[in-house]
Amino acid sequence: MNGITEALASIVLVHGGFVDGSGWEDVHRILTKDGYSVTVVQNPTTSLADDVAFTKRAIEAQGKPVILVGHSYGGVVITEAGNHPGVKGLVYVAAFAPDRGESVSSLIKDPVPGAPVPPILPPQNGFLALDKAKFAASFAGDVSAEKAAFMADSQVPWGVDALTGAISEPSWRTKPSWYLVAKDDRMIPPAAQRAMSQRAGSTVVEVPGSHAVYVSRPKDVAALIERAAKEVAAKEAAGKQVTAKQ
């Protein structure tokens, strides 16, 4: 790795709803092999406030600037937690990128006609789950049948309070962002992903992939994260050079 990359080599990965951080395993392997320091946040997905607090603790533990990455609902978490001064860039992976006052609930209340309907079961004791029989088709259509079945069976209950948690101030308004659109997503429609990424002014990459694109196409996901880290590091280095000349 060159000096610029080494100057900003801390990546914090945030998972979404219904899953835990283990899905980042292959992305983690690629990033660490390339010399990056990587932390996988294990959010409880009980409420936005709790998940933001968990993520901020991970950010503060780095001791260096951070590229914050979120998948799905994790995009809501990084949009709020990204206001932390240690965060220098945001990467959304088939994720929600809400604006001020928005939540997952508000973003999905008016689906586009004809859009796939995620097989979310009625809440039980304040938590949601996906229908196991429909999990693969909706969440992980390009993941092996064996892995998709494991993901369905190891679901993490997703708190209703997490869905209604609203953003106070979106960090993408003041920080650069990158967005990976999963073109075959049946959880968050690709059209919605494009609209949110455009609103955020993100640098966008589109790849074939299901909602579980971070599992099925880890090389593409890792490549965008590394691109974000390098571009932010180069900008920071250029800024320091300008300051030094003044």
Automatic annotation (TrEMBL):
<dbReference type="InterPro" id="IPR029058">
    <property type="entry name" value="AB_hydrolase_fold"/>
</dbReference>
<protein>
    <submittedName>
        <fullName>Pimeloyl-ACP methyl ester carboxylesterase</fullName>
    </submittedName>
</protein>
<dbReference type="Pfam" id="PF12697">
    <property type="entry name" value="Abhydrolase_6"/>
</dbReference>
<dbReference type="InterPro" id="IPR052897">
    <property type="entry name" value="Sec-Metab_Biosynth_Hydrolase"/>
</dbReference>
<feature type="domain" description="AB hydrolase-1">
    <location>
        <begin position="11"/>
        <end position="223"/>
    </location>
</feature>
<dbReference type="InterPro" id="IPR000073">
    <property type="entry name" value="AB_hydrolase_1"/>
</dbReference>
